[in-house]
Amino acid sequence: MKDLTQGSIPKHLITMAMPMMIGMFVQTLYFLVDLYFVGKLGSTALAGLSLAGNAMFLIFALTQIINVGTATLISHAVGAKEQENANNIFNQSMMLSSFIGVLVCIIGYFGAESYLNIVSQDPGTVAMGLSYLYWFIPCMALQFLMVSISAALRGTGIVKPTMVIQMLSILVNIILSPMLIEGWGTGYAMGIAGAGLASSLSVVAAVLMLVYYFKTAEKYVGVNFSLWRVDTQCLKKLLAIGMPAGGEFFLMFIYMATIYWLIQRFGADAQAAFGLGSRVMQSLFLPAMAIAFAAPAIAGQNFGAKNFHRVRETFTWSAIMTCSLMALLTIICLWQAEFLLQGFSSDKHVIVISVTFLQIICWNFVPSGLVFTCSGMFQSLGNTWPALLSTATRLFTFIFPALWLSQQNNFEIEQLWTISVATVCLQASLSFYLLRREFKKRLPKEFVPTTVPQVNN
Fold first, then answer.
1. Whole-prediction pTM
2. What span, in angstroms and rounded, lies between the C-alpha atoms of 143 and 146?
């Protein structure tokens, strides 16, 4: 357990964000490695991978419920020095994760084909997506146990073990992907199905390593099967905090699925290009997201310890860091978008569409950084409903104009990216307003700093 109620907040942010960023990048590499090898199979395979990969937003939505609820409640318990309560929260989280993981397997295998047929009219793309998903579903199911353990560690201020384990698992994925996709060393090429199997096997390895670490090293909280009985009050608190955060990712799934549905008229190349561009964009977001994800544990412990001035200070530093990083990334995308995409596809048309996507969408990077920061602070305060409201606002202000434009004779794909930029700016403004209102309700005025916080030595 690490006490985050003392010491320099910027130092805490950087110390926690660095291993989290590496861990998140490693997690993203699962998709980038798949993109690299599957991209060689052609645009249809790349489009199928992109459509199937979008289903991960549904998994992110469910895992985020557990992730945010577990980390927030445990950080509050740690700040209040309530170890027994923290341990009960962790075991309830593990019990819930196991149940949802089994449910995801059942629904995934029965519902995958229906989902793909909705977002694509191309039989080849659907077939490719199914081949990938059938082998990738175990990876999706095991995410819940990984998230539960990682969230518990993060709530106690520990993030390095998760990073190391994720790095080892991606090495497994990198080794297995060419072997299974192209048949290196085996002579049996599984194609896109091999990408799904490689990811699933690497996640199995990661879960086994996490469980081993938790049993042998972590002492503040631990698995206790006698606590695996339904604690209604605990689960209600966990779900009350986690469900709105999960709802954000569910709305993102709808957002992404809507775009895939709208651009299917432009063919598999357009869907492949959007999938490629959005994956690269998500990987670029990782440094800023790592800082925003580190903030809830720091602010959460201080909120639990009633160090309210440090809660506000955490927001200030987090916002400065995330928005500065996003501004730098905006410049990179405007100047070097094509360089970022090289190697993932040999189709020039796919690359051209992806470059255009990044050069337009990068104008929402700075507002996105503010959105990430505000969402993290809502988590630390134990009220994630405002974050869900701002995401819902973005979704509805995007979908209705996009649907209207799609019915016009001069509809162009670039119009969707422009609308997306405008709606993210609106979301950022609303998130900031709602956070200020939440601060006024939950943090006493006498703890409001009147000057820019200084770095504590």
1. 0.66
2. 5
